[in-house]
Amino acid sequence: MSQTETATTPSNDATQGGRNALEVRDGRTGKSYDIQILEPGTEGDTAVRGADLRQMKVNPGDFGLLSYDPAFMNTASCKSAITYIDGDNGILRYRGYPIEQLAEGATFLEVAYLLRNGELPSQGEYEQWVHDITYHTYVHENIKRFLEGFRYDAHPMSMLCSAVAAMSSFYPKAKNIFDPAERSISIIRLLAKMPTLAAMIYRHVKGLPFVYPDNDLNYVENFLSMVARMSEPKYEANPVFTKALDVLFILHADHEQNCSTSAVRAVGSSHVDPFSAVAAGIAALYGPLHGGANEQVLRMIEEIEHPKNVPAFIDEVKSGKGGRLMGFGHRVYKSYDPRARIVKKLADEVFQQVGMDKDLEIALKLEEAALSDDYFVSRKLYPNVDFYTGLIYRSMAFPTDFFTVLFAVARTAGWLAQWEEMLLDKEQKIARPRQIYIGPAERQYQSTLADKAPRTRKDSIRR
Ligand code: ACO
After folding, report:
1. What is the pTM of this model?
2. According to the UniProt entry, which residue ranges have a biased composition of type Polar residues (predicted)?
3. Radius of gyration in angstroms for the set of CA atoms belonging to the chain, rounded to a whole number
4. Is residue 347 part of a domain?
5. Among 12-16, 380-384, 419-423, where is mean pLDDT lowest?
6. DSSP state, 308?
7. Is 289 in the pocket of ligand 1 (CB under 6 A)?
8. 32 and 115 part of one domain
C-alpha cells in the first residue's frame, strides 16, 4: 500500500475517531481534507458526496478531482425510501415489507399503491385507487389506428415503447408535473392503460380484433380478457393464471435503481412528462441484459434442445464462446435472487394446472450444473428473476417476444413511484454526469477534402 493510501485509510468506525469524516491527504499537494460522511441510511449504508472531492485541486485554476465510476458500480444517485435490496443476503423489501410477504398476501394494485404512497392503503383508499385505475383503462381510438400501422412481426417492446411515448401527445397537460393533481391523473392513466396497450399489441401480432376493457373484472383478469377473449360474452380467467400473473407483477413492480428506473429518473429529471419518461424506461428494459433477459432465457433453452446438451452448453459459456448463461447473475444480488425462489415455486403451481413444461428439465439441469460449477460459484452467479418466468409465461401461451412486455406492465408501478420521488426530492437536479475527456488535444482545422462542392444525386451517380 502506498503512503498516500495509508494516509487516506479512515477508521472503520466513524465514531471511533470522534468525527464523522474521512481524512484525505492529496499526495500531489500534501494537503489534507476532511470529507464529511453523510448520515447513514436506514440499513447503515454510508457515503460521501462526490462533489466534495472537487475541493482537491493542484492549483487554483484546476477543475478539481472527479470520481470515475463507469456503470455506477459504487455510486448512489439518490436517496430513496421505496425499495431496499441486500444483495449479499438475498433480501428485497418494498417500503420495508419483505417481498415474500407481499407476494403471499397482497394484490398488485395494493403494492402499486404502497410503492407510490409509502404506506398500505386503508379499505377506502384501496377501493378509490382500484376504482380510478379501473375507469381509466380505455385508450383513445387513435391509439388503435396508430398500432395498426405496425407490421405484424414488429417486436412488441418496440410497439409498447412507441405507444407509451405517443400517449404523451394525447395528454398535453401531463407536462404540468409540479401540479399534484396532474401527476396523480398521469400515474393513474399509465397504470390503467398499460395492460390495455399490452393486450392491443398482443392482438395486433396475432391479427385478432382488439378487445375493449371490461370494468367488471379485476386488473389481471381484465388484462387476460383483453388478451384471450374470443366470442364468449363474458371472459372467465383461469384462477391459477390470474393468481400467478398477479404474483409475477408484484415481483417485478420495483427494484430500486436498476437500468430502466435510472433511465426514467434521468429522463424525468429534464422535467419532461411522465409518459415520455416511462417510454425511456421501456426502451432500457427491452435490452437483453435487463428485462429482455426473460425472452433470451427461453430462446437459449430452446437452442439447447435436450437436457443431455446442458454440459456442452455450460462449457461453451465458460469458454466465452457461447455467450452468457441468460437468467443468471445480477449486479446487486450475490446470492440467490429472492424473486427467483418465489418464481420457481409459482412455476410448480402453474405446471400442476397445465402440465409440466417440456423444457423444465433443461432449466433444472442448467441451474444444477451452474450451481455446482466453480466458474459460476466463484463469480456468485445465481438464477435471477428471469430464469423461470419465461417457462411460466409460455405455459400461459404468451409468445416469447411478449415476455418483456409483461415485465414492463408491472414495472410501471415502480417507475412512477421513483419518478415522483425524484421530482419531489429537493436535492435532485437534471441528471448530467461528468466525463474524463481522452480525445485529441486542441488542433487546427485543415480540410482533408479535395472538392467540397455540393453534388446532386445525378452527379454522384455519374462519378
Ligand atoms: N453467464 C456467464 N458469465 C457471466 C454471467 C452469465 N450470465 N454474468 C456474469 N458473468 C461473468 C462475467 O463474464 C464476468 O466474468 P469475468 O470476471 O471472468 O470477466 C463476471 O461474471 C462478472 O460479470 P459482469 O458482467 O462484470 O457483472 P455485471 O454486474 O456487470 O452484470 C448482468 C450483471 C448484466 C446481469 C450479468 O450477470 C448478465 O449479463 N447476466 C445475463 C443476463 C441477465 O440474465 N440479465 C437479467 C438481470 S435481472 C434484470 O435485469 C431483471
Report:
1. 0.91
2. 1-18
3. 26
4. yes
5. 12-16
6. G
7. yes
8. no
- Does residue 384 line the site of ligand 1, with CB under 6 A? yes
Looking at the fold, whether 195 and 287 belong to one and the same domain comes out as: yes
Are residues 63 and 187 both part of a single domain? no
Ligand 1 center to 73 CA (angstroms): 13
At 401, list the grid cell.
417476444
Q: For residue 274, which phi and psi values (nearest 5 degrees)? A: -70, -25
Q: Pick from 23, 51, 72: which residue ends a domain? A: 72
202/211 Cα distance (integer angstroms):
11
CATH number for the domain harbouring residue 414 = 1.10.580.10
SS3 21: strand
In a domain, 23, yes or no: yes
Q: Domain residues for 248?
A: 101-428
Q: State which of 330, 366, 373 you would mutate to test the pocket of ligand 1, scoring each by most atoms of that ligand within 8 A of its C-beta.
A: 330
Q: Are residues 167 and 47 in the same domain?
A: no
Count of domains forming the chain: 2
Name the percent of the chain lying above pLDDT 70: 94
The per-residue pLDDT for 461 is 58
Look at ligand 1, atom 11, and give the residue with the nearest C-alpha: 379
- CB contact at 8 A, 72 and 332: no
Note the pLDDT tens digit of each residue in 361-372. 999 999 999 999
**Catalytic residue of the set 204, 252, 255, 330:** 330
Establish whether residue 334 lines the binding site of ligand 1, counting it when its CB lies within 6 angstroms of any ligand atom. no
Q: Is residue 46 part of a domain?
A: yes
Q: Are the C-beta atoms of 228 and 235 separated by less than 8 Å?
A: yes
Q: What per-residue confidence (pLDDT) applies to 455? A: 67
14-68 pLDDT per residue, tens: 445 678 999 999 999 999 999 999 999 999 999 999 999 999 999 999 999 999 9
- Cα–ligand 1 centroid distance for 326 (angstroms): 8
Closest C-alpha residue for ligand 1 atom 39: 289
Active site residue 386: yes
Q: Is 333 a member of any domain?
A: yes
Per the model's pLDDT, the better-predicted residue between 179 and 15 turns out to be 179
| Residues 413 and 290 grouped into a single domain | yes
Instruction: Return the number of other C-beta atoms located less than 10 Å from residue 410's C-beta.
Output: 23
CA-nearest of 271, 254, 301 to 82 is 254
Alpha-carbon span 419 to 30, nearest angstrom: 43
CA distance 153 to 282: 19
Q: What is the amino acid identity at position 177? A: I
